[in-house]
Amino acid sequence: MEKRKLNFWQIWNMSFGFLGIQFGFALQGGFMSRIFQTLGAAKDDIPLLWIAAPLTGLLVQPIIGYMSDRTWSAKWGRRRPYFLVGAILSSIALFLVPHSPALWIAAGFLWILDASINISMEPFRALVADKLPESQRSYGFVVQTLIIGIGTWIASNLPWMVSKLGVSDAAASGVVPMSVKVAFAIGAFVFLTSILFTVFTTTEYPPEDMEEFEREKAKKNQFISDIVNNIGSMPATMKKLGVVQFFSWFAFFTMWSMANPALTEHVFQTPVPVEANYNMDVPAQIEAYNTANTAFQKSSNLVGSYMGVYGLSSMAFALFLAFYTSKRRINRKYVHMLSLILGGVGFIMMKFIPSHEYLNISFILIGFAWGSILSMPYAMLSSSVDPKKMGVIMGIFNMFIVLPQIVAALGGVNFVSNLLGSEAINAMTVAGISLILGGLANLLIVNPNAITYQQTEK
């Protein structure tokens, strides 16, 4: 089936649901560690508490990709039913997570939230490959990244914005501030409505051979063998991209899990207060604790806002690439390599900046890496695999996203950063080194179609 080219707004509509998905990811990535710290988690415990995110991705993404490849409804299509189910579950989890009364409950909600987001996210990646001709793949993934950048910036600033509107950052010991609760509620609303927009404004192509599709669908108990077979036969380009992805996602997991303790402690000089260090029977000590806690919560708002800058930067980067790739070819390998190296420099700078305003520079550079991570590997991969298996291949490819995060959560972040010292900011240095290694690993990619699509259409 020859796919027709889509205009910008058609691609925008089919990708708009990613705005909500990114609201969920940005609130999770920017503020989940803050919630853990508020509920009493120690710095070294935080990466392990985050293990829910990569584990659910490892389990959910290949399953959802496989199932969506074998789904078809004349009314709802192939991928859109999964968008909708994931959106409903994610919105419920987003609303409830900041109301967690205990650390273990917050960790449990993270499992639910991440699994639900993955149900929606994985089919979105496959939808771009489903809907667009080969010549528009880079353009499509870049537009998707543009929307992700918008969502990252707005969602990362939500607690700060809500606080500026007068909602309190103060809270009792072990209680998440109301500003965070309101921000997560807004995120839940945006998640659901943006997914609904894509569901009702986008159509999908039916399977090319419906009879063959029905025969494949009728086969039973093929999931594990199909997954194993596809892993065993993955193209060489996919394996090499896996090396790039390992270092890239190790770095970003380190940022999401450790940026709040690292930056509140090192840059803002307002570490989370430990209640055991205060005599809570003495009014002056209670006041001192509350003052320190409010300072930590306010600086956490600013950490989230600065993290939003990488979303804004990735949006600008994606906008540039969207216009460029709509008319011209790019060398995906070198674009991705340079972007990751710049992001690595941004992370390493954090240890040496004289004041928190310089975090803008760091996160601008990190945004270049983020914008590239969300588009270039998928564009390179989609030019190297069987389009009939796009959903399951994208799901398997995302194993290269979750495995490095599992390694990081199970002690990788703590082990490597502690080699540099006990300060939390060393985790950001580790993230920078990892991104630079990921950038250099792009030199492994040699497939010419993956590097630069050889356009043949008029």
TrEMBL record:
The keyword Transmembrane helix is assigned to this record = yes
- UniProt domain Major facilitator superfamily (MFS) profile: residue ranges: 237-458
Gene3D superfamilies documented for this protein: MFS general substrate transporter like domains
UniProt topology in membrane: Multi-pass membrane protein
Q: What keywords are assigned to this protein?
A: Membrane, Transmembrane, Transmembrane helix, Transport
Q: Which residues cross the membrane?
A: 12-36, 48-68, 80-97, 103-121, 141-162, 182-200, 241-259, 303-323, 335-353, 359-380, 392-413, 425-446
Keyword Transport carried by entry? yes
Q: What subcellular compartments does it reside in?
A: Membrane
Family annotation (InterPro entries): MFS, MFS_dom, MFS_trans_sf
Record's Pfam families?
MFS_1 (PF07690)
Superkingdom per UniProt: Bacteria
The name on file for this protein is MFS transporter
